[in-house]
Amino acid sequence: MIAVNGGVTGGRLLRETGGHLAESGPGPPADRVQSIVVVGGGAAGWLAAAALARLLKPSFCDVRVIASPRDQTGAFSEVALPSFHRLNSLLGINENDLLQRTRGTFSLGAQFADWGRLGDRYYHTFGSLGAKLEAVPFHHYWIKLRRSGDDPGIGAYSTATVAAKHGRFAHPSLDRRSVLSLYSYGYHFHSGSLATYLREYARAHGVTGIDRTVVDVRLRGEDGFVDALQLDDGSCIRADLYIDCTGARGVLAQQALETGYEDWKHWLPCDRVVSIPCAGAGDLPPYSESTARGSGWRQRIPLQHCVDNAYVYSSGHVSDDDAAATLLADLPGRALEEPRFQRVAPGRPAKFWDKNCIALADSFLDPLESTGLHLVQTGITRLVTLFPVRRYSPSDIEEYNRLTTLEYERIRDFLILHYKASQRCDSPFWEHCRQMAIPDTLRVKIELFRRCGRIAMLDEEHFGEDSWLCVLLGQNLEPQDYDPLADVLDIEQVKAALFRMRSMIQDGVDGMPTHTQFVADHCLAQSEGIFE
Ligand SMILES: Cc1cc2nc3c(=O)[nH]c(=O)nc-3n(C[C@H](O)[C@H](O)[C@H](O)COP(=O)(O)OP(=O)(O)OC[C@H]3O[C@@H](n4cnc5c(N)ncnc54)[C@H](O)[C@@H]3O)c2cc1C
User: Fold this and answer.
1) Average pLDDT over residues 37-47
2) Residue from 124, 373, 377, 408 whose mutation best tests the ligand 1 pocket (most atoms within 8 A of CB)
3) Which residue of 30, 289, 331, 479 is 20 to 30 Å from 17, comparing CA positions?
4) Per-residue model confidence (pLDDT) at position 362
5) For residue 76, how far is its CA from the centre of ligand 1 (angstroms)?
6) What is the mean pLDDT of residues 165-173?
7) Which residues, other chains included, contact 514 with Cβ-Cβ below 8 Å and sequence gap of 6+?
8) Ligand 1 centroid vs 432 CA: distance in angstroms?
9) Which pLDDT does position 529 carry in this prediction?
10) Helix or strand or coil: residue 301?
């Protein structure tokens, strides 16, 4: 049974053949994939369509997007990781134009408050911690210095962190010898405006947008593949390959194909979000804020004309009303909308690619490290790399699923670390996090780090050593020992080298404009309104 749920009109069951369908699909079937339909017109759907149109060209493959005109997008705002630059260069996007039209700002990373213990504060920024000294990674020298009782904290060796703390921003230097080249940056976007921006790009590059809602999914009797999508005007769409970007609804993959779902709620306890934008509060910080709260965490994302606020929480530990009250009590400005509630389903589809359907958009992971758009990008890149040799190529599908599963599991472990590595015991939620069992891959990583400060990097890991270090050290996990090779330099040499490094970073950051000034100079939005 395939009638689509979740706010769309119920339709008739279309599994039987012989229904009268007004088809608008491509021509006769060919051996390779010649047509793709993306379902879902949020940022994920249009990002996928824009990238496919650019990579595949309309003469090679017809791309259409079914975008329900009635719905609001899932998130009000979102952080894009530095990997978004790859999309910029693929699509030839002008960064200033993009930020003007999405009321966007720059992101050097995130500030985490109250995660390890109440009162703690650290940054996970996009850049390296320290620079190469001798044989071993920088942080071993830092631990050695710290043991000698003389150190201001590892963040002082990160250009991005120092800039974030001082509210500064500039593009990284192209001179690889400069400390100002040792970081990257991402963006904060208004989600709806980003979807609009990508939609315009995709349409200008040959993608057809269909402003309709899918009300039924027809499966082929012989093999259960998606055969056709019925829309709310009674017409029907066919394609060789379908991409499900319907967010948490999973209209094709979960509802129609019943692909199945691996639940990770026992590791990632937050399953609800309440969000509300509010008026801006003066200067624009070049980072988002993630503050641990009694039953989850609160996010703030600075846009040019407002601040987006969300409380991501565990429905088992706090009611919707109390979560909304907590969020409203803590707004940095006047509320601009009514609170909006959403479900997050921590987990992953049992198969990302099942039959002729790919579940691409990520409503599956906790938004703590802002991986949604990144995962759409890697999903598209992987699809193009493994573009099916024939319309159904089991080995390509298997490889796609293997790599995507690894990537999700690595990110999952990184997210779990934030919850597990907390020393808080001031609420049942944090007690649960401290007590919960964790995946072996993460357990081994934590144990190795605790013992000797080493970080094991696994295949398909998106977050690098420096990201892991930010969270491990930021949440007070101290290694028992440092690498003995750090003793190749004596303590005075280490002191001198690290002092020099800190000074160079501070001098470099002192020369940067404020983030607020940088945005005003480069990409100030023309319109005062905040919504499209
Ligand atoms: C609170 C929250 C914060 C997040 N923060 C970030 C972040 O900072 N960074 C990040 O990268 N990711 C983030 N994400 C993940 C986020 O989901 C995506 O990155 C991004 O917003 C794209 O969303 P989407 O397009 O998948 O989903 P949505 O914006 O929900 O879009 C789904 C689309 O599917 C359409 N649809 C549904 N059913 C049908 C149907 N039957 N027929 C036709 N269309 C249909 C809807 O109309 C909608 O347009 C966050 C998610 C949440 C919930």
Assistant:
1) 96
2) 373
3) 30
4) 57
5) 9
6) 98
7) 167, 168, 169, 283
8) 29
9) 52
10) strand
Burial zone of 298 (CB within 10 Å; 0-12 exposed, 13-18 middle, 19+ buried): buried
- Cβ-Cβ contacts under 8 Å for 3 (sequence gap 6 or more): 10, 11, 12, 13, 215, 216
What are the structure tokens assigned to 141, written together? 């020298």
**Residue 327: predicted pLDDT:** 98
Average pLDDT value for the chain: 91
Q: How many CA atoms lie within 13 A of 456 on its CB side?
A: 16
Calculate how far, in angstroms, residue 72's C-alpha sits from the geometric centre of ligand 1: 9
Confidence band of 528 (pLDDT split at 50, 70, 90): low
Q: Would you put residue 485 in left (φ > 0), alpha (ψ -120 to 50) or beta?
A: alpha
Note whether 363 and 248 are within 8 A (CB): yes
pLDDT at residue 73, rounded to an integer: 59
Rounded to 5, what percent of the chain is helix, strand, coil? 35, 20, 45
CA distances from 426 to 122, 284, 429 (A): 20, 32, 8
Say how many Å lie between the first and final Cα of the chain, rounded.
Answer: 37
* For residues 422-426, average pLDDT: 96
Q: Residue 523's Cα: distance from chain center in Å?
A: 23
